[in-house]
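Lab notebook, design round three. We kept the backbone fixed and only want residue identities now. Task for the bench partner: fill in a sequence for the structure below.
Input structure tokens:
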């Protein structure tokens, strides 16, 4: 009986040790993965700023996942990458002199889970619709849903600003 108890205790302690080290390895992996996700999301943020300032329709479209939903256009939601490209092209055609003078998103929180990220923040911009118009400054509050792509990059899946 004593021998069985000793073996049971030994196996139990060994299990605790293995579990402790395995959990530490998984935690370090998750921390590394989380850091990589945050870096890739920050890259998307920088590309968003560049694309918004240049107002290049193809550059703006590349920031979206294939099934993205943009609630920022007037009218119904723009759904899908093809529709997104068409909406950006139409906006450019309707407002050929539109110029973004400043775009400074301030992301306040990012939560990442299972290949998705939700971020909230304030989105400050200054723009001019034509060369003879005075600049207009806005600060919108918004939420963006991001989707991790198979290559590890992130793209917008849903954007809603208020």
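Proposed sequence:
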């Amino acid at each position: 009986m004593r021998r069985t108890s000793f073996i049971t205790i030994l196996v139990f302690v060994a299990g605790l040790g293995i579990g402790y080290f395995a959990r530490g390895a998984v935690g370090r992996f998750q921390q590394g993965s989380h850091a990589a996700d945050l870096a890739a999301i920050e890259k998307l943020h920088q590309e968003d700023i560049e694309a918004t300032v240049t107002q290049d329709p193809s550059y703006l479209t590349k920031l979206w996942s294939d099934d993205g939903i943009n609630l920022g256009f007037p009218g119904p939601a723009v759904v899908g990458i093809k529709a997104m490209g068409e909406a950006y092209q139409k906006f450019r055609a309707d407002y050929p002199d539109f110029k973004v003078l400043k775009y400074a998103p301030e992301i306040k929180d990012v939560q990442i889970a299972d290949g998705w990220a939700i971020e909230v923040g304030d989105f400050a911009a200054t723009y001019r619709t034509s060369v003879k118009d005075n600049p207009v400054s806005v600060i919108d509050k918004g939420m963006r849903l991001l989707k991790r792509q198979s290559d590890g990059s992130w793209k917008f899946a849903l954007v809603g600003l208020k």
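Keep this in mind before ordering anything: The radius of gyration is 24 Å.
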